[in-house]
Amino acid sequence: MPMARSKTGPDPVSRAHVLDALLDRALADREVMSQLDTIDSGGREEVRQALSATEAAIFSAARDQEDRYRALTARAARDWGKIVAWALMGLVYLIPAALTLLALYMFARSLAAPWPVVTLIVGGGAVIAAAGVLVELRVAGQSEPEITAFTLVLLATGALAYFLGYEAWSILIAVGSVVVFGFVAIGLANLSDVVEELFGVDTASPSDVESAFAEWRSALYTLGVVPALISYVNVRTEEQYSITPRYRAEFLSRAVDPAELHQRTPAGARLAEYFRTLRSGSFAISGPRGAGKSALMAAFSRGMYNESPRQDLVVAVLAPVEYVARDFMLHLHIELCESVLRYVGADAGKDNGLRRFALQRRAELRYLQTVQGERSGKIGFSGSEIALRKSVSRVEQARTFPEIVARLRADLVDVAQRIKDGPGEPRVIICVDELDRIQNEARAVGFLNEIKAIFRVPNCYCLVSVSEDAMHDFELAGLGMRTVMDSAFDEVLWVDYLDFELSKRLLGNYIVGLSEQYLAFAYVRSGGLARQLLRAARELLDWAGKDQADTLCTVVGSLVANDLRRVTEAVKGSLVKVSDRAVVASLVRALDAAPGQVSEPGLFDYAAKLSSCTVGDDITARDLRDTMTAQALYLATVTGVFRDDLDRQRMTTAGKPGATFDALARIRRYVGMNPQAALALLDDFRPEWGLAALGR
Asked: Which of 365, 304, 367, 303 lies closest to 338 in space, CA to CA?
């Protein structure tokens, strides 16, 4: 799609225009149209309206690519700005250099030159050139008042030299000229960096813009439009029940973004309501590892829950493993500056002074540590050479931690207020992910105590992912026990694993027409983990595609055999941790008794043999035995549930609350984390499906 181009650069293409073009592309795709033909789609307009309802989610899938395209578009439109900036900064150095050359010419041509004027020109040139260097140092976060003092003294010396005679004038002019050209050399050497830092006029070529636009369109089509259309088809398709692995289309081979794995959950709905009703807030996202805490934060960052076309300013950081309060606050402050630059770069209309603020503040923060540098300049004339060389090595006075926090909070207040007037009233969202990486509990508590100083800034929302234990601490506050969680956060939201219905919705973005039996099997194997669900579905379709005559029992048997073989080899490899040779020999013999042909009775007998294997008092050996026993009994249960007689009636009526597919997926999670609990849950689950309990 060609882009319009103004005199200053290409004009960014609107979202509506891009979405219409991609919808036309999808409707021209035979594979997509073949799926739409199987339902009463109502024509292009109805499909377009359906996509409009999920437009925020569609565009959030390719937000990074869109931001890059719009940033490059804005940069390409500032060609004129680069010319002006270079001209202004260049004059700062070229004018004093030209004036000094004029003064030297006057000095060489006539001894009767007006010495006060010549001296004034040289001294004034030094002041102007030094001022340019001081601007550069200021941009770099440094300050060198001695440069100003030196040039002012040089100028003042001119007045004294007026009364001292010709030799004094000569020395002053020679030294002053060296000073001027030394400053000019320093300034011109760093001119490019200063222009970019001060004016932000780094430009992009039209080919860069075109390439970014193509990447955005491609990502938007693959990650946004196609999944939305697949979901649209699946919603209008009746549930399919079949023991043969039938499906109409699948798109599992494409790349998947973590945020795309998120499905709208009760926790997400609650958080969206808090964002809608509160002017600011701090929220902890808690839940077990792999449940989707990071995906929920990414979904909010990308605007998947936005009801308006707002584009929030997002600052996303990872909690440090080794936590140092001062370093983290500086890192967070720099990330705020970087996020502001990305936010403004996407739309020049958002600037409002934010670009210059972010550039200057980022430079100050980067140079809070040791600054080392060297400046030199030289000039030669009449067969001689005079050189000026200055080395600098110093540490600027470090700010105290309270000063760093206060400055960060003040800047947050400033930024949040400046962006508030944008379309849709944008907000600042700070995401601190993986707090549970801080293993030391005392350090984690200290981390929360210190970062909560930046919470509750108007129009600013903080999201922090925390461990399950943190959720328990927050609940204790309701019983009158004050904790750091209670004082730091407005709410703690629990993110659980996917249930069966959410899993079907997620797979509905990738597969059209897969039967309920196979959807349930993929869900149970995944344990409710979103990323594992896609892997399980991909592996399922790979195995099913090998023989179109396969049935549910055959496909499940093949995958179960593969799982059994993989886990058995892993347990055997872990036996090196067991020092008792007799125990190792006993476990190896038990592991070698694995059934050659996978069946529910064979796997059940295998689990019983493992369970009765004697390992003595060795804790490692006992854990390995119980893990393998739980795995074997779980696979036996899966084989016994997913048989060819698993029809619609049995799927919808069999099993009590503790014996549903959700319960079996939960057991799958326990197998690796707590095999003893998994065995107990399996003994509760199996009788509800007519299977024998192990009864250890």
From this structure: 365
SS3 47: helix
**Where does residue 602 rank: exposed (0-12), middle (13-18), buried (19+ CB within 10 A)?**
middle
pLDDT of residue 478: 47
Instruction: Kindly write down the DSSP assignment for every residue of 310-373, as one continuous string.
Output: ---EEEEEEPPSS--HHHHHHHHHHHHHHHHHHHHHT-GGG-TTHHHHHHHHHHHHHTSS-EEE
- Residue 404 main-chain phi, psi, to 5 deg: -65, -45
Locate 190 and state its tokens. Answer: 């760093």
Nearest to 81 by CA among 22, 9, 179, 161: 9
Closest CA to 284 of 463, 468, 446: 463
Q: Tell how strand 428-433 and strand 9-10 pair up.
A: unpaired
- Strand pairing of 249-250 and 511-512? antiparallel
Any residues with CB less than 8 A from the CB of 685 and at least 6 apart, and which?
A: 637, 658, 659, 663, 664, 667
Cross-strand partners of 373: 392
Find where tokens 């339902």 sit: 39
Determine how many CB atoms are found less than 10 A away from the CB of residue 659.
Answer: 20
Handedness of CA 80, 83, 86, 90 (dihedral sign): negative
C-alpha 242/C-alpha 552 separation (Å) is 8
> How many residues are given for the chain?
696
Q: Can you read off the two tokens belonging to residue 184?
A: 């000019």
Question: Distance between CA atoms of 520 and 241, rounded to whole angstroms?
Answer: 11
pLDDT in tens, 89-135: 666 666 767 777 776 666 666 655 565 666 666 666 666 666 666 66
Which residues partner with 430 through β-bridges?
315, 462
CB count, 10 Å around CB of 213?
A: 24
Rounded distance, CA 536 to CA 550, Å?
Answer: 18
Q: What are phi and psi of 285, to 5 degrees?
A: -105, 110
Give alpha helix (H) positions in 398-440: 401-419
Does the pTM exceed 0.85? no
Strands 371-381 and 384-394: antiparallel
User: DSSP characters for 537-571?
Assistant: HHHHHHHHTT-TT--HHHHHHHHHHHHHHHHHHHH
CA distance 305 to 323: 32
For 44-55, what is each residue's pLDDT tens digit?
Answer: 677 777 777 677
Q: Which helix (H) or strand (E) holds 602?
A: helix 600-611
587 phi and psi, to 5 degrees? -70, -40
User: How many angstroms from the chain centroid is the CA of residue 317?
Assistant: 8
| In 425-570, beta strands by DSSP E | 428-433, 460-466, 491-494, 511-512
Which of 220-234, 610-624, 628-642 is predicted with the least confidence, judged by mean pLDDT? 220-234
Distance in angstroms (rounded) separating the CA atoms of residues 395 and 512: 63
pLDDT, tens digit (0-9, with 9 covering 90-100), for 230-254: 777 776 666 678 787 766 566 665 5
Distance CA(613)–CA(587), nearest Å, equals 7
The answer to whether the beta carbons of residues 678 and 667 sit under 8 Å apart is yes
CB burial string 56-80: b at 16+ within 10 A, e below: bbbbbbbbbbbbbbbbbbbbbbbee
φ/ψ (deg, to 5) at 646: -80, 85
Q: Residues with Cβ < 8 Å from 68, sequence gap 6 or more?
A: 212, 215, 216
Element (H, E) at 389: strand 384-394
DSSP 183-218: HHHHHHHTHHHHHHHHH------HHHHHHHHHHHHH
Mutual orientation of helices 166-189 and 191-199 as an angle, nearest 10°?
60
